[in-house]
Amino acid sequence: MIDLGISKLMMIGAVALIVIGPEKLPRVARTVGTLIGKAQRYVTDVKAEVNRSMALDELKQMKDSVESAVKDVSQSVQTSADDFEKTWAEATNVTSEPASDYRLSLPEVVPEYRHPKKNWRLKQGATPNWFKARTGVRTKALSGAARVARFRPTKFN
């Protein structure tokens, strides 16, 4: 990188003042500043793109390693399951029989459908019961006698 110190910058400024002139120097300085800013933004964009591509490559490598690990685990599970089936078949002396021999025994009498009767005392709606219980909404109607019995003050002896 170019080593620019304060003395070198002052020398460049003095030469620019002589060559360009005092009238055009502020406009040229603004233009140079904007060009330097654009160059810095371009460099940061390129750096960010390189970092993203490096991260993407690392993620691809991680994905490949995870997929290979999953394949290894699935193969080991499959082999252990096959070994278990073999040992189970040897232990129970059961050969592979067709599945049609194993039939479910269904009950002879199929239960008859009964329509649930509506309970007019229980208020049903779209609001779930857990929400009603949390907010204190009554879901059961009390008769007058039941309400009196519930809220009757205790007797003092």
Distance between the termini: 102 Å
Structural class: mainly alpha
The main β sheet shows up as:
none
The Rg value, from CA coordinates, equals 43 Å
Shape: elongated
The average pLDDT score comes to 82
Please work out how many helical segments DSSP would assign.
Answer: 4
Summarize this structure briefly.
The chain is an all-alpha fold and 157 residues long.
Give me the secondary-structure topology:
Layout lengths: L5 H15 L4 H68 L36 H7 L8 H8 L6
Structure, explained:
By secondary structure, this protein is mainly alpha-helical. Helices cover 62% and strands 0% of the residues. It has 4 helices and no strands. It has helices at 6-20, 25-92, 129-135, 144-151. The relative contact order is 0.03. The model has no long low-confidence stretch (mean pLDDT 82).
What are the main properties of this structure?
157 residues; mainly alpha; 0% strand; elongated
